[in-house]
Design brief:
81% of the residues lie in helices and 0% in strands. It is mainly α and 269 residues long. It folds into two domains: 2-128, Four Helix Bundle (Hemerythrin (Met), subunit A); 142-244, Helix Hairpins.
Length: 269
């Protein structure tokens, strides 16, 4: 009878420990501080041991959650997907800790690369921000609503880049030698980077009339793509990001109006 209860009691104890959000948060912050110190060049043995303890804690936490929620239930949650992936990517750092340094450098050199992935555990710090899930959800909604605008803007860049490639391939090969180079150069102009440097380079090898036309051409590109285009993309994207807040305000205003109408109706009776 006692032996039959042991797994249940143990499971309850583990669940109580590893499903405790405050404890998990403490280990996340501790591990983030350890990774920051290690990547800053401070890496004594005790710090590596502390990093190993944090990794093992997260591995056990993953195992407990898999036991409680099941395989499908665990991976259905977005946070668990991120945490589980980071735990799996951290396994090489656990293996490397117990191997001699010489063995890692020769036979298991791949671990040197995989061990670097442990810095990705720094992303677990996102758990600290309580509204991060809302931000991610709004970001996804904004991306969906702005997808057509983004596609149109990218298409505009590609078309202008191909035109510029055909026009300036010979006069400025460092910027427009190939369509790929041209797309990158037009993208720089759209962000306001090098918008005067590129036309000045072309104008230096052209006649006065051509130089003026070139500067006019790139000035128009700057106005259309950077000042108007990016401003339009930013405004629509930001509006979509905060649309949930607007919906809530509109709902509250609607409820307030309904209450006022009801009060006026009762008063008139």
């Amino acid at each position: 009878m006692t032996t039959a209860k042991k797994p249940t009691e143990m499971k309850k104890l583990l669940s109580k420990i590893f499903l405790n959000e405050h404890l998990v948060l403490m280990f996340i912050l501790l591990n983030a501080a350890i990774i920051f110190a290690q990547e800053s060049g401070y890496n004594p043995y005790w710090l590596s041991l502390a990093d190993l303890i944090c990794t093992i804690f997260f591995m056990v936490e993953m195992g407990v959650k898999l036991s409680v929620f099941g395989l499908k239930g665990y991976w259905r949650n977005g946070w668990n997907c991120m945490d589980g992936t980071l735990v799996i990517l951290s396994i090489p750092s656990v293996v490397a800790f117990f191997l001699p340094e010489g063995m890692i450098g020769s036979s298991f050199s791949i671990l040197l690369i995989l061990r670097l992935l442990r810095v990705l555990r720094f992303f677990r710090i996102l758990h600290v921000f309580p509204n991060f899930s809302v931000i991610v959800r709004n970001f996804g909604k904004a991306m969906r609503e702005s997808a057509g605008l983004f596609a149109s803007f990218l298409l505009l860049i590609v078309v202008v880049a191909l035109l510029s490639c055909a026009l300036f391939k010979s006069s400025a090969p460092e910027y427009f030698a190939t369509p790929i180079d041209s797309i990158y150069s037009i993208f720089r102009i759209c962000t306001g980077e090098g918008w005067n440097e590129i036309p000045d380079t072309i104008a230096a090898n052209s006649t006065i009339a051509t130089a003026r036309l070139v500067r006019l051409y790139f000035s128009i590109l700057l106005i259309l793509c950077s000042i108007i285009g990016l401003s339009l993309v930013n405004s629509i994207f930001v509006d979509a990001m905060v649309s949930d807040n607007n919906d809530e305000l509109e709902k509250q205003v609607k409820e307030l109006n309904e209450k006022v109408d009801k009060l006026l109706s009762d008063k008139s009776k």
